[in-house]
Design a protein that fits this description.
- The complex is a heterodimer.
- Chain A is α+β, with helices and mostly antiparallel strands.
- Chain A is built from seven helices and 19 strands.
- In chain A, the strands form four sheets. Chain A has a six-stranded mixed sheet with strand order 10-11-12-9-3-13. A six-stranded antiparallel beta barrel of chain A has the order 14-17-16-15-18-19. In chain A, strands 5-6-7-4-8 form a five-stranded antiparallel sheet.
- In chain A, strand 5 and strand 6 form a beta hairpin.
- The longest helix of chain A is centred in the middle third of the chain and has 12 residues.
- Chain A is globular and about 60 Å long.
- Chain B has one domain: Beta Barrel (OB fold (Dihydrolipoamide Acetyltransferase, E2P)), CATH 2.40.50.
- Chain B is about 20% helix and about 35% strand.
- Chain B is built from four helices and nine strands, in the order βββαβββββααβα.
- A six-stranded antiparallel sheet of chain B has the order 1-2-3-9-8-5. Chain B has a three-stranded antiparallel sheet with strand order 4-6-7.
- The chains are: A alpha+beta, B alpha+beta.
Chain lengths: ~350, ~120
């Protein structure tokens, strides 16, 4: 057990990081992500005003999100840096938001201030959040709630069950097909035990959660994203829909628009890249990157990728060095070791589109 | 077999001391994915960081338990780091050292003392 965002969390369960990782990619892994912040935004003056207020907090199209769908979002600051990344869902008469555990103490007051006139910001404190991920996640969850079979990637649904109302989204953070399920706290243990009783399901700790998301090329806030890093530098331009870009119907109008729109037009000075160390030595967070004798950047996440069977990493370098195949060096314990810029994800994603 | 506080085991083989890490240490490290060994022939001093072990969780070092010379290293670990988890007390020895006087091993714990240390 280790401290994580104010919670005691297991790095691994009995199987260990390697087996837990590979099992998730081969069958189904169950993650307890109850530490994440679940928040309801209830409109005070109609959904339209709430949607407009939420759009004013981030460079993301909220208005076009249909009821029953979820989208990835990013709160930005006036300098164009990322305050947090999040998921938000349109539940018809309100929005449901899931933010990072380590940022909920920031995000909840941030939303309460920004949305003061348009929404009641209600932290959900009586629900646990589980993620079931992997190619057999659908088969397993369907035994408890058959209606999840009809969902596709980023769909959400509310299903009445013997465990109370399940708030289900077809999403996750491993690169695999899977679900996140918000369950009433009083019933979550029974729900989790039913899943863990299935031969296909293993509990997965923080270690494999990190290696799975790293192989999927996904950012971890506080490591690959922070208040100085813009979404464009982070390679998250796919999260900025056309409607919020130059020439779009609702161009700009979010914190940091000047920098973010400029970087979209001209390219950012530095950018997040994937890296494959050439030897077996993992290059971890903080590893300095060199082009010849010149320091050019830093690794922000790195480790061994069990499905890749080799070390993988991500970090930031000046944009001219970001082309896949570019050879750099990483400083590992005082030795310069070769590392090559690589495409991400390192392991193909299998979302059910 | 003798044990250090750093969870290494030491075994006298003829005039050499073979060094590895204990089962307890291997289990705590988790799945080992990378091992870096010293060079055979190197002269080392007690406390020198002479091996690197990286697991899926973290990086750690093996310190030289004694002053001496590295006589032999186990190259198999470089190609198959998982041996450290599979057979830490046997096939996954790290290096063999030449030391001036084998009696210096008396300072280390025996098995009963080590078991008490790890509880």
């Amino acid at each position: 057990m280790v401290p994580f965002a104010g919670y005691e969390m297991p790095v691994q369960y009995a199987a260990g990081v390697m087996k837990e990782h590979l099992h998730t990619r081969a069958a189904a892994g169950l993650f307890d992500v109850s530490h994440m912040g679940q928040v309801i935004l209830r409109p005070k003056a109609g959904m339209e005003a709430l949607v407009a207020g939420f759009e004013a907090m981030m460079p993301v199209d909220v208005a076009s999100l249909p009821e029953g769908r979820q989208r990835y979002g990013l709160f930005t600051n006036e300098a164009g840096g990322v305050l947090d990344d999040l998921m938000f869902a349109n539940r018809g008469d309100h929005l449901f938001v899931v933010v990072n555990a380590g940022r909920k103490a920031h995000d909840i007051p941030h939303m309460a201030t920004a949305l003061a006139d348009v929404a009641e910001v209600v932290p959900v404190t009586d629900r646990a959040l589980l993620a079931l991920q992997g190619p057999l996640a659908e088969t397993c969850l369907a035994r408890l709630e058959p209606r999840v079979v009809a969902m596709r990637f980023m769909d959400i649904g509310v299903f009445g069950s013997v465990f109370g109302d399940l708030w289900v989204s077809r999403s996750g953070y491993t690169g695999e097909d899977g679900f996140e399920i918000s369950v009433p706290a009083a019933r979550v243990e029974a729900f989790a035990r039913d899943l863990l009783a299935m031969a296909e399901v293993l509990p997965i700790g923080l270690g494999a959660r990190d290696s799975l998301r790293l192989e999927a090329g996904l950012c971890l806030y506080g490591h690959d994203l922070d208040e100085t890093t813009s979404p464009v530098e982070a390679g998250l331009t796919w999260a900025i829909q056309k409607s919020r870009r130059a020439g779009g119907a609702r161009e700009g109008g979010f914190p940091g628009a000047a920098r973010i729109l400029r970087e979209l037009a001209e390219g950012p000075p530095r950018i997040r890249i994937g890296l494959r160390p050439e030897g077996r030595a993992p290059m971890r967070e903080g590893t300095a990157l060199f082009d010849g004798d010149t320091g050019v950047g830093t690794i922000t996440s790195g480790g061994f990728g069990p499905s890749v069977g080799a070390p993988v990493a991500m970090g930031y370098v000046p944009t001219p060095l970001a082309t896949p195949g570019t050879r750099l060096e990483g400083d590992v314990r005082g030795k310069r070791l070769p590392v090559t810029v690589a495409e991400m994800p390192f392991h193909p994603t299998t979302y059910k589109r | 077999m003798k044990y250090t506080k750093e969870h290494e085991w030491l075994r006298v083989d003829g005039d050499l001391v073979t060094v590895g890490i204990t089962e307890h240490a291997a289990e705590a490290l988790g799945d080992v994915v990378f091992v870096e060994l010293p060079e055979a022939g190197a002269t080392v001093a007690e406390g020198d960081e002479i091996c690197v072990i990286e697991s899926v969780k973290a990086a750690s070092d093996i310190l030289a338990p004694l002053d001496g010379e590295i006589a032999e290293v186990n190259g198999k670990l470089v190609d198959t780091p998982a041996l450290v988890n599979e057979d830490p007390l046997g096939e996954a020895w790290f290096f063999k050292m030449k030391v001036a006087d084998l009696s210096v091993l008396d300072q280390f714990m025996d098995e009963a003392e080590y078991k008490e240390l790890i509880g």
